[in-house]
From TrEMBL:
Residues 1-106 form the Thioredoxin domain. The keyword Disulfide bond applies. PANTHER family: THIOREDOXIN-LIKE PROTEIN 1. It comes from Dissoconium aciculare CBS 342.82. This is Thioredoxin. Transmembrane segments: none annotated. The active site is at 31 (nucleophile), 34 (nucleophile).
Length: 106
């Protein structure tokens, strides 16, 4: 698996419509903590969480999606299951991300 880049509202809607567990990383290119956590998401997508779909959205490139998600700080990670938001994690917190992924995979 890999981390896919969301480039439009339509792509975001399509990703949510799939229904399986997904995590969206709302980030900015100028955000230091975003750069630090990014490799960890790639690692998660390639190891223990291959059954989860990983996405990222640049809040400056796709502000419509950032607004729709209610992003106020970066990085923010939002988990969706069956198209509905199930958990939000604000900040670069690998342990919280891992715990949320494990909780919602069950």
């Amino acid at each position: 698996m890999t981390v896919h880049n969301i480039k439009s509202e339509a792509e975001f809607a399509e990703a949510k419509a799939d229904g399986s567990l997904m995590i969206v990383d709302a980030y900015a290119t100028w955000c230091g903590p975003c750069k630090v956590i990014a490799p960890k998401l790639v690692e998660y997508s390639e190891t223990d969480h291959k059954d989860v779909r990983f996405y990222k959205v640049d809040v400056d490139e796709v502000p419509e999606v950032a607004k729709q998600l209610g992003i106020r700080a970066m990085p923010t990670f939002i988990l969706f299951k069956d198209g509905a938001e199930v958990e939000t994690i604000v900040g670069a917190n690998p342990k919280a991300i891992e715990a949320a992924l494990a909780k919602h995979k069950a």
